[in-house]
Amino acid sequence: IGQLRAQMSQLHQEFGELAMRQREDSVAVEGLHDLESRLVQHLEVARTDQQTDHVRLREDLEQALDTSINGGGSDMSTLQRKCDELAQAMEIHLASARQMDMLQPLETERQERNREIGELVEFVQGERQHRIQHVEELALRQQRLEEDVA
Questions:
Q1: How far is CA 134 from CA 13, 58, 121, 128, in A?
Q2: Residue 72 zone, left/alpha/beta (φ > 0; ψ -120 to 50; rest)
Q3: d(CA 72, CA 79)
Q4: 3-class secondary structure, 129
Q5: What is the mean pLDDT of residues 91-106?
Q6: Interior CA angle at 132 toward 127 and 135, to 5°?
Q7: What local confidence, expressed as pLDDT, does residue 89 receive?
């Protein structure tokens, strides 16, 4: 009977541990679902932005074609120039997007450094205040000693 009780106790403990692991797994799964939702949201915004840029570029190109066609027939060089301008604008836009992606880690690091500097400033100010108090206490002691001697 004692052995059965020990086994039951062990099983009860294992069930408790299993329930705890299940709760932890559930929390982790919720975290993953939240992360997935945020990622989908971010990708949707990026896709929408890209579609808007494509529509805008298409409209600009159509307008350039209409202007060129309706402008007098021999404006093939104007059309070529406008296409080049659109391609250049697109390259600038893509380069800017890449730079923003590269700047984000730098901005995060800058914020971290500012936080660390703030902590150092607080520490130095605390030490300075402590030393001022210590010097004042020493001066007061010296004054008392001089008064006692006199």
A1: 57, 74, 20, 10
A2: left
A3: 11
A4: helix
A5: 70
A6: 125
A7: 76
